[in-house]
Amino acid sequence: MKQHLKLFVLASVMTCSVMAYGADEEVVMERVGSWFNVSGFSISRNADYIVMSQREADGKELIYESHKTSDGWQVAEPIESINEMFSAGGSVGGLMLTAASRRIFFHAKKPGETETFDIYYVEKTNKGWLEPKRVEGVSSEVDDTYPSLVPGDETIYLLRHQVTSDVKLEKKEQDRKSIYRAQKDLKNNWKRATPINNTINTGFIQDVKVADDKQTVYYSVRTERKKPSEIMFTRLLLGDNWLIPRKALGENDGYDYFSPQCVNDELYFIKSNNKKQDGMGAIYVTSLNEEMSSFPTVAENGKVKKLGADKAVAADIVMFDPTSNTVIGRYKSDEWQGEYHLTGNADREYIVEVRSEGYSFDSYIVNYKDNAKSQLPQTIELFDTIQLAVSVYDSEIFRPLESKVIAVRVSDKAIFRSKKIGEGYYLFSLPLGSNYNIIATSNKFAENKFLQKLEGDVIFSRFERQLPLAPTKRDVTVKVVDAKTGAPVAANVTLANLSREEQLFVDGAEMSNGVAKVKLREGDIYDLIVGGARRYSFHNRALDMSKSTDTEFVVELTPLEAGASVRLNDIRFATASSDIMIESYEELDRGVTLLAENPTLRIEIAAHTDNVGNAKYNMKLSENRALSVLNYLVDSGVDESRLIAKGYGLTKPLGANDTEENKAINRRVEFKILAEE
Fold first, then answer.
1. pLDDT tens per residue across span 489-533
2. Is domain 297-382 given the CATH code 3.40.50.720 in the classification?
3. CATH number among 3.50.50.60, 3.30.200.20, 2.60.40.10, 3.20.20.70, domain 472-559
4. What is the Cα–Cα distance from 331 to 99, expressed in whole angstroms?
5. pTM for the full model?
């Protein structure tokens, strides 16, 4: 490091004064740092960090950076990535710090590659400055120099010859350049740069800087080629109409004043060391009056992080005016620290949108009209995964279902499995940036699915969705006929689903030719109950739709006439006992109903057993069981005089007692119709 780059704290502030603004108004200029050979610079929005170009003895331009602490400006350090690329015969200058101070834009001529100056930029990471890159779409076939980006980096000002390279300029005109402006399109590509208003593009313009308000421009110019340069002030009004340029520092005192930059109502600039036009000098700062200052702005500084983790997120941040839907600025948080810096005018209201591929979307309304303070969170947190809770249930009875629930990513068919967190309740963790088919399946139910869109803007981190599944069913007919004649009988048909809470009912009056048509769930067990036909018995039996493939069931109802027997199914007793089990009450109650609807009937309650045990034991057991049924009927309101209890033991089997199934058939209770009263 050369000795002239050493920084030190001055014992007294170096100041000077010039006449400016008005005849009676004096401006005090304060020295910034202790550098004497600065050819260009750019200072941060907080005025605590500076980058500068310094001309070496061999004529090369090298780039340095320095930070300001409580002890003053520190020793300037070279930015090697820039210097290494352009030091070997190259030339570099026109430094411009972007708002977050993590990018430097500059012009340079790369040795052995280009004959003209192009616009470059370099980015700073956690490991230092990266290799410079050319700004594509801005540079032309002529010299493009002194880039100045407005906050948001969507507009760039630069200097350029107004003629192409095939036009030979007179020597006295070769330094004449004009201010050009270019903007980005919706795809973030630079449009063609065009010159700004001719009332400004006069004289020999040397450099240009745009203030944070995006309207106020400071630049240096020589009115004639040999005259000292002066700093001018102008402001964009409407369209391409500009305020008539004015001198920012009053009458020139013979020194060159150039490289102006406005920061917080203060103007930083270079004043030449002497009256020679050598393009070098020291950095100064002076306060600006309200007339010459840029419009008040509010700076928003913060970080974009991943929710719940200390991980930086490189996000696109767009600020726009909601009244006109006009984009005011496009910003980025850096990928290394997640830091962002954006600026808005203090008298405006904006909407700020934050996006990053694979992350959620966030939006804020910032109103600086009544409060010129930062209103964005210090840390904006974006998430890259959402929680999706899916409730799977029976579409007809709304009961939760045990299911298999998966998510299939549309882009690559990758499968994500759910976690069961409750009955019929499943949870997914799904990365953003893709769409997913959520598919639920369950045995004996039709598959169902929905599309969960997680591409584009996602605001919420948790979603709850429902997936009703429709049961697969079989068309079934129940045909009710007279047991003796086969003639159709109009009876009430009830199908009680024993597998779940469901019951079907067909009124006898609605039956056509004794046929009831129903849809039964595959795999479920139903209790088929037929009754309510005048002068006919009732009937019940189980229909197991997991075992049976039948689509038609015939029910024969016995006419209630003398000698006929009505079997009571599902009448159960405790083992070797006459105690009626509680599951038999429903069938016995149907018997009570039958007797109530036919009050003239007299019946014999006949109880039968299988062949387990001797004949005497079984006879006594059957008599006691018949008596237990009689007592139940009497207790239910049936006149005892209409009832006779009789046990038959094992004497009248319906079939052989050779299997447990056949034994169960032989163990039965029947109502035998006696003569009517």
1. 999 999 999 988 889 999 998 898 999 999 999 999 999 999 988
2. no
3. 2.60.40.10
4. 9
5. 0.68
